[in-house]
Each structure stands twice: as structure tokens, then as C-alpha cells.
Amino acid sequence: MNIMKLSKPILKKIVRAISDTRSDEIACNECFRELDRFVDLELAGKSAEEALPLVKHHLDHCMLCREEYEALLEALKVTKKLV
Amino acid sequence: MLNWFKKIKQTHYSNEEWVRLLRRPPDEKALHDLREILRRGLITALASRIRRDREQIVEDYAQDALLKILDKIDTYRFEAHFTSWAMKIAIYEALADLRRKHWKDVSLNDLSGMNDGAPIIEVHSDEAPAPDYEAGIQIIMQELQRIMRESLTEKQRAAITSVMVKGLPVDQVAELMGTNRNNMYKLIYDARVKIKREFEKKGIRPEDFLNEL
């Protein structure tokens, strides 16, 4: 029998993902398309979340896109003064 | 002195200038400047992810990214800064490579249980659960397993089990399942929608359980 142990944090993550599921979600490629604009808005001190709410929702639920977003933000903070 | 401490002169190209200068045949100085920007960004963003040979690895990533950027330059839409767009590509490629290396030993065996029906999922905790909590967990777990068994397709079940339950990375699972990351997201999304609808039919509001978990 295939038995899987599930920790409370994992169960919570799954339940939250189900709870937050919405009909207009975007997939990773659409998020990627807007990611540079999203980060530019943030670095300009504007509300990226308000301008691109679906990107924000995706980033909150997709670990890989989140990782790319955080790395991009970090990289652009460093290179901002060079460009 | 480490290369990345070398002083990089400021570049003041506009987005239009970057595109014009990098279209083939690319301008050597613009190429050099962009490589330096990418390298500087990557070395900071990837610092915690690369333990050894960081300088060389990042140098290679910047060079590889440069080639991708030149190939894709006509897809740049002028909606973000050119350097943000370019860095996005560099980050994406570098992280994809690092993940591939990190998860290279994941095999189809790690996805076991995907094809032999829904797994029996047990919640474990070191704490003694409160009776109400335990009852809530039982309801949601039983329902989750029933939905996985009865309503999800084999692929949806595999995706949910491997990514959400086992926590394996989406892109590696996608590769093992012969698909891509975007399709995996859609597969998991469709599964989440089904689970949510089935919960609703039973009057289960997942958000009510979040406070208990």
C-alpha cells in the first residue's frame, strides 16, 4: 500500500493552494513575460501588485517563479546604479 | 582582487540604444557592458546557491545568457527596462541549470506511487492534536483522498502527489513526465479546481481549516 506521510506545514500549503485557486490564474510563461515589468515597478516604488495582480497571485503560489522573481529583484537592485 | 570587485563604469544606454547596438552584428562595447551587468547581477543573486567556482560558473552563465538575449532581442517589447528584460533571461537560464544539477539524481523511482492509484496520506505531527483539530484534519484528508482517487486523472494525481505532497520541483517532474513546466502548472491548476469544486459540493470550505492547521 502506498502510504505518504504529510507534515502539517505541507498539508497547510496544499489546503491554502486549493483555497486560493481562482478562475483567472495565469501560468508560468505568462508570469515570466511580465516579470521584468513587475520588478521594475517595485524598484520604482510603485505598486506592482495593483498593476499586475495576477502576476502577484502566481508568484505567491509558484515556487519556481517566486525563486526567479526574488533572484531578479536582488540582481536588479545591485545593477540599478550601473544603468 | 576578485573580478567582480572590478569597477564597472556606468552605462547610459536607452532601451532603444541597447536594441540597436545589440542587433547583429552587435557592438563590442555594448556586448561587454551587458555581460558585465549580467555578471554583476548573477553573482549577487546566485551567491547562496553556488558554493564553489562561483566566478567561473557565473562568467559562463553570463556568456550563455548573452547569446540567448541576442537570439531573442526581437521579442523585447519595451515594457520594462532592457537590462531588466535581459537579466530576467539570465536568471531564468542560470536557475534552470542549477536546479537541473541539484535534482539530477531524481529518477522515476522518486515519482513512485504516481501510477498505482491515489496514495494514502497520513498527517504526522510531534504535537498531541486537539480533538477538534484532529476531526477537521480527518474530514479534509478523507475527502482529499477520495477526490484524488475518483475525480483526478492519473496525470493530475501524479502531478499533485509529486509536486504538492512530495515537494519535488515542478520543472524536474515535468521533464520526467515528458512535458514542460507551463503544462505542469496547468495540470496542477486543473486538479486544484477539481478539488475545490468537490470540496464545495460537500460544503467544505478549505479556508476554514487554515486557521486550525
Helix and strand arrangement:
The complex is a heterodimer of chains A (83) and B (213).
Chain A: E1 3-7, H1 8-19, H2 28-43, H3 48-51, H4 53-61, H5 63-79
Helix pairs in contact in A: 2-4, 2-5, 4-5
Chain B: H1 15-22, H2 28-45, H3 54-72, H4 82-102, E1 120-124, H5 131-150, H6 154-165, H7 170-176, H8 181-201, H9 206-210
Helix pairs in contact in B: 2-3, 2-4, 3-4, 5-8, 6-8, 7-8
General description of the model:
The complex is a heterodimer of chains A (83) and B (213). With 83 residues, chain A is mainly alpha-helical. Chain A has one domain (24-82). Chain A has helices at 8-19, 28-43, 48-51, 53-61, 63-79, and one strand at 3-7. The longest helix of chain A is centred in the C-terminal third of the chain and has 17 residues, at 63-79. Chain B has 213 residues and is mostly helical. Chain B is 62% helix and 2% strand. Chain B is elongated. The N and C termini of chain B lie far apart (51 Å). At the A-B interface, β1, α1, α2 and α5 of A face α2, α4, β1, α5 and α6 of B. β1 of chain A pairs parallel with β1 (120-124) of chain B.
Query: Count the helices of chain B. How many?
Result: 9
Quote the CATH topology of the largest domain in chain B: Arc Repressor Mutant, subunit A
Strand fraction band of chain B? Answer: under 5%
* Total individual domains of chain A: 1
Principal-axes geometry of chain A comes out as elongated
Q: Using a beta-carbon cutoff below 8 angstroms, give the protein chain pair with the largest interface and the number of residues from each chain.
A: A-B, 45 and 65 residues
Oligomeric state: heterodimer
The rounded Rg of chain A comes to 16 Å
Q: CATH superfamily of the largest domain in chain B, please? A: Winged helix-like DNA-binding domain superfamily/Winged helix DNA-binding domain
Give average pLDDT of chain A, whole number: 91
Structural class of chain B: mainly alpha
In the residues of chain B, how many domains can be counted? 2
Tell me, rounded to a whole number, the average pLDDT of chain B. Answer: 85
CATH architecture name of the largest domain in chain B: Orthogonal Bundle
Which outline of chain B best applies? elongated
Task: Give the termini distance of chain B in whole angstroms.
Answer: 51 Å
